[in-house]
Amino acid sequence: MLNPKKYLLSTLLILILTLTACGADGSTQESTIQTAVALTVAAQPTSTPLNTETPSAPVIPTKTPFQQETPTLPSAGLPTQQQGSNQKFECAKASIQSETIVDGTIFKPGEVFTKTWNITNTSTCVWDTNYKIIFWDGNILGGGYVYNLPQATGPGQTVPVSLVLTTPDIDGTYKSEWKLQTSDGINFGVGQYSAAFYTEIVVSSSATPDFGITAVDLYVTRNPLFGCEPANMTYTATATFTTNGPVEFEFRWLQQDGNNSEPQFVKITSATQKTFTRVWKLSRTAAQNSNRWFQIFVTSPVYKEYPKVGFEFFCP
Predict the structure, then answer these.
(1) Which of 183, 203, 223 is the last residue of a domain?
(2) Within a 13 Å sphere around the CA of 20, how many CA atoms are in the beta-carbon half?
(3) Which of 84, 94, 114, 228 has a Cα-to-Cα distance from 159 of 20 to 30 A?
(4) Do 110 and 199 belong to one domain?
(5) Is 65 inside any structural domain?
(6) In the beta sheet, which residues pair with residue 181?
């Protein structure tokens, strides 16, 4: 950009030279020069320079933004919108009372059989026929994956859950597990842990399968349960024999006091469970201790000793 001060000085010098060259008289020359000088002085910048910068906009203070608090989840319990789900789960409770086709039963390959579980509704709901019986795990044994509950079942009632199944063509041991399902799609089993109910079978193509005793369950009960009101306290031992097919065997009861039974002969025509009992009475004057026990011995066709089951006798 051209400096105005330098421009005016240059103009004044040219004007003086021009007047001198043109022969202007002295008064004219002086007047002209004074005018030029005055214009030059007027064009000089002031001692305080002008501020040509655009002033910045004033800073307007803003409000402190609101602090958003993180919501705190409840430490226990379900949200309100899930309370309905709790009510639905209340309908998913059951227990098993009995069943057919004992575990370990021996079948031929490709044999058709019907398995029945008698299941009790232990909930406070009515199970309608929209409830399902669903395959859960293991081998499906030729059945379907889903069945409708056969009948409406109220609280405390028992419903027979029967499935027609077919054994595989290959020898071996097979287990098929099942559960129930509510009309809301909640799967549940039986007992405290909602376990699957199941059937476990053995397939054998042998002409002479290895039939025999698969289990002996022994437990002892006391009458009365507590106290020593009567003169004698009665202890009853219950032994349940499970077989996987037709079998004949002989067994004996043994007791800690040496009062053992004579051999008992048993003939079973199919896979089943058979129960036997034995009673031991103790008077109030009998020695009080926890050393007494019952035991089962199978003496034929294969000798086997089953574990002792002890019990306590105390009469305070």
Answers:
(1) 203
(2) 7
(3) 84
(4) yes
(5) no
(6) 132, 187
